[in-house]
Specification:
Elements lengths: L17 H20 L1 H29 L19 E8 L7 E8 L4
Antiparallel strand pairs: 1-2
């Protein structure tokens, strides 16, 4: 017994829903074009996206602020930001002033990362 709504495979490799899918897709596309062409909907969508962007941005800032250590960066490891640093290591940083495109910088390191 077939499930209700199950696709039936036809001999030519197409299912019984392939014919209606094109018409539904065309209807959905036409609807969204009409919806997007309405100025009220465009303004509302732009405001919604701006609000969502601000919320995401503030959430990221709050998350970084909550996880940031109270100590200055020189006293803790710059990689894990949890353990105290025991030394410094050289890392390469991109720069435009150097002929190679990189410059060496010293960062604090805990020795375990």
């Amino acid at each position: 017994m077939l499930r209700q709504g199950a696709d039936i495979e036809l001999g030519n490799g197409m299912s019984n829903d392939d014919t209606s899918t094109g018409a539904e897709r065309a209807t959905n596309t036409a609807y969204m074009r009409r919806w997007r062409s309405d100025e009220v909907n465009r303004v509302r969508e732009r405001a919604r996206r701006a609000a969502a962007y601000r919320e995401r941005k503030s959430r990221a800032v709050r998350k970084n602020h909550e996880n940031s250590p109270a100590e200055p960066i020189g006293r803790i490891c710059a990689i894990c930001r949890t353990r105290p640093s025991i030394g410094q290591v050289f890392r390469l940083r991109l720069c435009n002033s150097s002929s190679s495109g990189f410059e060496e910088v010293l960062i604090p390191y805990c020795g375990k990362c």
